[in-house]
Design a protein that fits this description.
It contains four helices and 16 strands. The chain is mainly beta. It starts with about 25 loop residues before the first strand and ends in a 14-residue tail after the last helix.
């Protein structure tokens, strides 16, 4: 008779993992302090006989593969072993930055028909930064603003540093980022968060040809003129809104020219149009009735 037997043949040849993902760097997810959820596609492996092998994965933080990756660097190790004891491994590093991202939509209240680049201060918790926002017809968005990691932002602040009062908004979670919208009242040229008599003085000094986005050019046209004065008139004596109590004092409705000089702001004396030694709403009324002198200059008068 003929006797037959079967044997199991396994590969003795080394093998490697195919398709190990590239290193990943992401911001932390909004709405949580746990880090970021990252989906990785595991590599594949097969022995020289073409048999697919099981690929195992483990993380350096010992968390499950589907768990959020914490802030910092986490190493993922992939490994496989065939029936003959051959093994192969590869690694990928997932880095989660110590910040989250915010998309801040900014609108300028009033009639804006031009375009400019505005320097907007965004305050999130203890973080304060200036971001450039391209504005068209009074609207623009600062995308991917880096903010500290927080579980939520119930109050954020935005302010056009050279033009507007501040506004506040609560952030919502949109995908993996925060989103917030701000509507800014303009007229604050000196960034003190008031629209007051000092801003009128700056406006008088800036009157004339200007580039879009220049100080006092609130409507983004090619000049500082009555169209821009309208923002100061509309928002006069207003202060910006803040997260928490406002500690900036109060708007100044009048200042003596002597005080302006003492504070290093003597150039604003040119806005004392009625020449009574005081920069106040009477000068605004004078401007509204008579406009500006043909030649703007700082002319000291009796008692200044």
């Amino acid at each position: 008779f003929t006797q037959s037997s079967s044997v199991s043949v396994t590969s003795l040849a080394p093998f490697s993992l195919v398709g190990t993902p590239a290193a990943v760097s992401v911001a932390a997810d909004a709405g949580t302090t746990a880090g970021a959820l990252v989906s990785l596609t595991a590599p594949t492996a097969s022995n020289s006989c073409g048999t697919s092998l099981t690929v195992n994965a483990s993380r350096s933080d010992s968390a499950a593969m589907g768990a959020a990756y914490p802030v910092g660097a986490t190493t993922v190790t992939y490994s496989a072993t065939d029936a003959a004891g051959n093994s192969a491994s590869s690694t990928v590093v997932v880095t989660v930055a110590n910040y989250q991202l915010l998309d801040a939509a900014v609108s300028l209240n009033g009639s804006i028909t031009g375009s400019s680049s505005r320097s907007v201060r965004v305050i999130a918790g203890a973080s304060s930064q200036i971001v450039s926002v391209s504005m068209t017809n009074g609207s623009g968005t600062a995308s991917n603003v880096e903010v500290p990691v927080a579980a939520a932002y119930g109050c954020l602040t935005a302010k056009d540093a050279g033009h507007s009062l501040s506004d506040t908004a609560a952030a919502s979670v949109s995908g993996v980022k925060y989103a917030a919208s701000f509507a800014l009242d303009q007229g604050d040229s000196n960034d003190d968060n008031f629209v007051d008599i000092l801003d009128f003085g700056i406006y008088v000094g800036d009157f004339g040809a200007a580039a879009a986005g220049d100080i006092s050019n609130f409507n983004d046209d090619l000049s500082v003129n009555n169209g821009d004065f309208g923002f100061i008139s509309l928002n006069f004596a207003k202060s910006g809104t803040t997260c928490g109590a406002f500690t900036g004092g109060a708007p100044r409705t009048s200042m003596k020219v002597k005080e302006l000089r003492r504070l290093g702001m003597g150039h604003l004396a040119a806005a004392d149009l009625n020449r009574d030694g005081i920069l106040d709403p009477n000068d605004i009324a004078f401007y509204m009735q008579h406009g500006l002198p043909a030649v703007k200059q700082d002319r000291p008068g009796t008692g200044w």
